[in-house]
Amino acid sequence: MNKQLLIQTAEKFSTASNSKEILIGFDGFIDNILRPVKARKDHENFTPIDDIITFSDRIRSASGKSTNIEIVKERSSMGGNGPIMANSLIELGNTMNFIGSLGNNEILQIFRPFSDKCNNVLSFSDPGITDAFEMNDGKVMFNYPQSILNISWEMILEKVGINTLRENIERSTYLALVNWTMIPMMNGIFKGLLEILSETAERKTIYIDLTDPRKRSREDLKECLDLLMQINEFADVILGLNESEACQVAEVVEVNTEYQDIKELAENILTAIKIKAIVIHSIKQASVATEENSFIVDGPYTPNPKLSTGAGDIFNAGFYGGYMTGLKLDECLITGVCNSGFYVRNERPATKNELIEFIKKIITI
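RESULT FIELD:
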């Protein structure tokens, strides 16, 4: 990693003013963190399957036969792209307004530590559930999104109210709308927000995360990307993608899908999607492209992450948290990769001071 860039990022982020107000919506999940068992030694000790290829080979070997795979649940925790990103941004010192799926009639206990730290929380449905199989080379997630499939613009207006929604948007300079894939009617929500943003005096910044659109139709994804360009007329839109998502987007907008690195991939996408910025993160790198310039940085990669579920959301929070304090784009990439780097090693989001110390620690390596 570029040590000079790390030094200047740590210095600037440590003196940057926080207390930015941000609105995030609209999902919420309960994450079950699971380990598939390779071999059990006794009633307390086992060896996990620690890579996806071995896991898939174990399942494939059962074709035409059958198999039994023991699963150990390590814990259940607050999940969902919105809550994980929002919680990290709070830890970095920002003021959070959250609208999402934390419980239908009341906020569920598992979300209480998060909701208690928010400035304002509005919950309109029960959360989905994710079974996340953690392995060293990635994760396999099985989602049960039934409770959030009906989230729509009409539902939000009914449960939240147009005036309350407008107030939350107007009071927040920064917004983040995440988990497009799991909310099938998100394009309708984008259309409703487009109308509000077109009437808002302050130009907002909106961070968008798609969350693996592979199962959605290419027509829906194309409409989504067209809507983001329309929203960009009234607000600065930043589209955050992992490498797989970026390849899917590149195919849909019919740009060159061959690239030497993810910076080139971000630049290719930006030629077709005219928005403020394209951000791409992979396991080992992160990049950003705007009309003015583009950057790529290496991340503090570890081959043995303790927790990877939510790492992309934590990267988003780190990048956006840096962006909100006025850091340059390459410095935002550093706060992004180091925020996720701390998370996968410590199984929790970093505070602002912890993130600064982690960046300084990387400098010495």
